[in-house]
Predict the 3D structure of the following.
Amino acid sequence: MNIATQKPLSKLIIKNVRIIDAYNDFIGSVVISEGVIQKIYKEGSEIADASSYQTFDATALAVMPAMVDLHCHFREPGYEYKEDILSGLRAAVKGGYCYVAAMANTTPIIDNTELILKNNTKAQKADLCAYNQISAIGVNLDDKILVDAKEISKLTKLFSNDGKSILSEEFMEKALATSREYNFIVATHCDDETELIERDLKILSQTKGNLHICHVSKKQSVDLIRKAKADGLNVTCEVTPHHLFSHDLDYKVNPPIGSKEDNEALIQAVKDGTIDMLSTDHAPHSAEDKQKGSPGISNIETAFSMYIKVFKDNNIQLTRFCEMSSYAPAKLMGIDGGIISEGKEANLIIADIENLYKIDKNAFISKSNNTPYDGYYVCGKILATIIKGAVKYDSGQAL
């Protein structure tokens, strides 16, 4: 397994591969040159100038858009013993991600431009995958004083007090109104999930702001969001791997893993488009902190395999997976993602999507391996992650 910054592959052909993106699913070949997808050939087509390219025969494998995660926790500053930016990015590229956004509930709280720039700079120097530092929406993660949204929105489109719920209705009104003024997104964490979602949707209808609902986990929440979308409200939402993958599991996460009825409602909401995107809520902790009751799962390395298992078990097209894991979150951030086409940056994963294997938490490269899924069967293994034409992760089984 190699995780390192490498020079872009000057010329590469991935041939005989199943090409899956948000719109397409076919067998063909992808030609990459100088970090960009130059040509795509369908099965049976003759590849021009193939002799001048490095060629990887990916028969029985799939190439898909690298994923975009708008909800993870890299713990820096303050909790580097759980995770830091470098270890988090290394885990992210192993997991197939080309873009991650990290929450602000660190110590100190990330609620100003100085701290945002500091983390963004560290991530840029790591040169693994793109990183966006999310800002708190309230100073010190409280729902009392709004951060300097005018200045911070020049650096990030995502604001969230994740880890804490916004209980003040007045503050939420101000946050959503300001999100409309400066064109950013308020991502909400709701402990009393359904009640707060209902309140926030009502405020949204009045303010016409930009609302994103994190880690939806309940049937009632899905029903509220489905109705809000039908009413034309500007709301998006996400679901995590653990809430889709399991139910009635006694493992501390926030929000809790729900009932079978909740799980079935989430899967239906994936099918019908109510849930827009997939986010990990990667929440690494030390073993000691988990024993003390810290909520969260370290899952950025296993999310792909957990999702693929759920999608296959429920006969959901993998084009929908690419839409939710890459296209939709990228669109929300105003970046490219989810489409494999000529002229696009080569941000790709090569995966064996038929590979059924057991999760082994001892194989995690994250600083933390807190998971209840050790030994569980999942499906689909990432063999390589390519970002801007450079191999950022190679399992040793590809390229």
In short: The chain has a mean pLDDT of 95. Residues 100 and 346 are 17 Å apart (CA to CA).
